[in-house]
Queue: 4 jobs
Job 1
Amino acid sequence: MQQYKRIGILGGISPQSSALFYKKIIEKHYQKSQDHYYPEIIMFSVNFGRLKDYQNNSDQTDYINEIVKGIDALERAGTDFAVIASNTPHRVFSEIENKVSIPLLSIVDSTAHYAIKNGYRKLLLLGTVYTMKEEFYKNGLKAQNIQAIVPTDTEQEMINNIIFNELILGDVENQSKNIVLEIISKYPVDAVILGCTELSLLITDRDTDIPLIDTTDVHAEATLNFAIS
């Protein structure tokens, strides 16, 4: 029987991807162990609307504190470490990490390690406008000698609208899938980062010959491995 650290998930950003993240951890345990001795998991689901309001402010103090409050709740509940089941909050990962007492795993690091393992050096980064416009993802990958490029501003807005107006509501539209696939086809890269955990609800490896880095799947794998270590 595998012994695990107790996993804390900061979820709700959005509920759709958080449920998928939890499910992937359970599935990956079963694939590895073929038993039902699943890791103990505690999730704190944040107030998504309040967090979105804070995210739009130039002062990110409230945004950071809201996430820290959730992670502190996970610590009080007895978790040994925590993960954030979303890409966008990693824009302030270092600030969050400095304010909490339990270890945090970074989805950017998980993505970089996966890219290195598979020999990917030039990547197309898709996600929310925050993830694509800001430098936190690109800098995290650059530190591992990986180049990340992003779509045009117009394409970024299209992807962002699909995420917030459809995917976080669980609405998966074929027209939106075709839009994203058309954007992907324009860029000669080794692989594409689905840098929003909801994007894996829209497109999969079955939809394109270009390798996809599903950050939900990659981070769930890293989470389970860390819980074992």
Job 2
Amino acid sequence: MRFPLLAFTLLALAPILPLHAEESELGRRTPSELGTLVDRVTGRPLTVLTTGPSNDLKNYQTHPQWAADGVHILFRSPDRNPARTPQAYAVNEVTGAITQLTSGSGIETGSLNVARLSNRLYYQRTGPDGRQQLVELELTPLLADSAAGTVKAAASYERVLATLPADFKGAGGFTLDADERTAYFGVRLADGPPREPGKPIPQVPGGIRAVDLATGSYRTVIDTPWLMGHVQANPWVPGEILYCNETGGDAPQRMWLVQADGSGNRPLFAEAPSDWVTHEVFVDRDTVLFNLMGHTPELRLRPTGIQSINLRNREVLPLGQTPRGQGFWHCNGTPDGRWALGDNFDGEVFLINRRTNEIRLISAGHVMKPDHTHPNFSPDGTRILVQSGMLSGGASLDLMLIPVPETAAP
């Protein structure tokens, strides 16, 4: 059951009428759920973007969240629409209006790619023949037509760029190159046994495949002897790809960097046996942030916390760790080098001033279930987007914005 929080205000929701099974939900527009509340611990004002019984999830922190128009935040939900199928949505940060961007069955929402150079969305779906398709969606006309109540057929807004091979098995998501001419897909090259509870993910060969967005051509970037994970292209440097050995826990060597032609494959950070590396993310053209886990007493016998590594000279700089609890979990940063952030296992979000090394708790109580907060900075570095179980006590997730404090040290 939802419970009230301090200073919480919310626009009334209009009823949503069910659709007939044969009707498309593309462009379906629902009223604003925009509201505000005050963080009970820090006193910071929070903007609530979504509420209600649906489970609303943001993109992973390795991928963009804001559309190129600077107004819409894209997200996914498995149960927000009348048909209760996984779909992609956009919420207008100013008006709160929510627009459904995809429709039908077979939509793969786990790796939505929001273009930075154009107002487009790239996603996967299962085609009529059962094969995976890469789809390009034009956001500007769809959002405009949805607002005007004049939504057309799907073909007016989207086109299939490529149909992936029949034996395609995704692993690690997909990502857009910096020049947005190529998409890179993580793949699994064999099936393994089911994962046992409490055990690492069974390792099978994996790799990265490239799809040319203009021609649809499909080629190999690299094959690996272990499971592929967290594929992300450098948003500033074309042809540079970061990926990891996905184990669901501590990998012997997690982070790897490779060029789009398969050359230069190397570990990004050479791990010691006692290092537990996780949640790497590009923050500027030359820098990746990652976390050295410190969630056990044994790990705290060595330095832990969020680290910065320079891709060119491999210099590693520590950004800090929380002295209490289990330490940081996910991280992110602004391209100007001023701010970083981290969340922890307790649903708290911390702001790190990279110029002064100050670590400041700015929001708490986000209830790290049914998923983690996965925080991201807005493109201008003034807001932090999280998915939060605060309002539901962990029963479902909502999207919230945390303002970056204006009074923080310069």
Job 3
Amino acid sequence: MNPPRPLVDHLIYVVPDLEAALPAVEATLGVRPVLGGRHPEWGTWNALLSLGSDVYLEVVAPDPVHAASVASRTDAGGEVGETGEGGGRDLRLATLFGVDRVRAPRLATWCARAESLESRAAAAAAVGLDVGPLREGGRERPDGSRVSWRISDPTGDREGGVVPFLIAWGTTPHPAGGVPGGASLGLTLEGLSVEHPDPERIGRWLKALEVEVLVREAPAPALVAVLNTPLGEVVHRSDAPIFPLT
């Protein structure tokens, strides 16, 4: 495993029920996540944990408040986001990290920080990787303050989640600084690696994105995260459940 570079922005866990997952995350990682906010245009909501000064963990689930309205709009042929933030693109719930299909909590994918999204997207395109359209987004924190970002398309498969999407925070303070966890509580990201049947191609793509992680050859794609926790080292893989829900 290699230490995470600053460009590793956050890991994404998907769970079927956010409130049920919070105690399970705490039992596994030793720190309880706090609610982050809702994404009405995607029908999801999240909870967050810090994994260091500039890295965090996002736990994402279907939002019972907004998921039904998202599903009704897409069933009617509308575009999710067309009346919300950053519209003009069909970002369906069914393609956002597979949250509508998840049955057991798992590590789904990851995000890399890139302040110049356009240059990173151009470099990726030059080696055959389409990061999708760039768009603006945001959410309200529980305290009413606003979080804003620019991202590449988060809804694509990206080789089973091993290739990150990109985010630029602009003037918004990084979320890792305002949530529980981090080095002070003994919860940090120790390493991140990728497994894939075509490691050379995936390695070229990651190099174009200016992200350095170890890529190993394996029969199927998998993302592997190693976390230091107050309870000891934890290894979570995207091809296996990360903890049980009772």
Job 4
Amino acid sequence: MFVDIDAFQHKKHNQNAYGDYFASKRTQGRIIVVLSDGLGSGIKANILSCMTATMLLKFIEAGYDIQKACEIIMNSLPVCKVRKISYSTFSAVDCREDGTALIAEEGNPKFIWTRKGNILDTQAYIVTSKIFLNRQMQIYNIKLEPLDRLIFCSDGATHAGLGTKDLKMGLGRNGVIGFVLNRLCDNPDISSRELSKSAADFALSVEEGKKAKDDISVVSIYMRNPRRALVFTGPPYRDSQDGFYANAFKNFNGKKAICGGTTANVISRELNIPVRSKILFHSGSLPNLMEMDGVDLVTEGILTLTRALEYLEYPPYDTPEDAAGRLVKFFLESDCIDFMVGAKFNPSHYDPSLPVELEIRKNVVKKISKLLEEKYIKKVTLQYI
């Protein structure tokens, strides 16, 4: 199974920093996830939640048992002298691809577990702090099945709408559950990215004037078969290998993209598939798309890849509908992405008239791969041909 995970957040109204912090790491058949909620809001809360989440992630990644790691943090977090509560709360998950998941929660709303349109529950093992006797942590050991989902949120989501006419006590955990079940009923295969965003947006929508009174964070985990994708960019180093790699591209089981006019011409020639130009209304400064039967996306090469790298590194609020924006969407809608990168020298990459920041294809693809793995939690492989 593939563990599809993503998160979405809204800042508290009139704040410049998120008071909640989400961190994750995919490594050796497992994924570690932490959501921390810092005390208050703004910069102070951001620092506290970032420190908590980062330390927990590093502890668990280094081999600490999740209970031991979370106990260390629980016993270390000081109490605010004014509000008499912990400087931050957290939810931590250590999930394996076989479905085994260990969950630890301290102070955050209890997670939501769905299976086939139903809510599942499980008993927690309670751990009381040896230093702060009024502080308890819940430990869960569960076994996920294909198509199961886990939802984690900060109390900004469950408290959304608090004091309004329709939700005097706030949205509550049941309100989040109701929205999630309805959303899954409408779209059972919705991605974690879409589900976390729509749930966070819903929580914001019930706030008075749609102005968040607290930071809102929603994390979604989805156990399913991976969505595979292949990106072919750059012609192979040896012309004699063109046919071999063209057939490997053709026989790949998943979505397929070509980045580069020369690469598209190689595939077209070897597989006898014509290439057609596709005029985009929002092409911007980038070359237009191309079309080929049996290929999901065909773009120009280095310019489009470089712009896609910018969009991934500094995501715009609305990703443009140009070729790079569509390539980013192709990446984000996939789980396991294989790159076939041709090593043949292309003199145009060294044209002095091109922008100084323009890098050769190999380096750009390396940076995209690293971002997709570390920031977007994808599985990426690189094959140089």
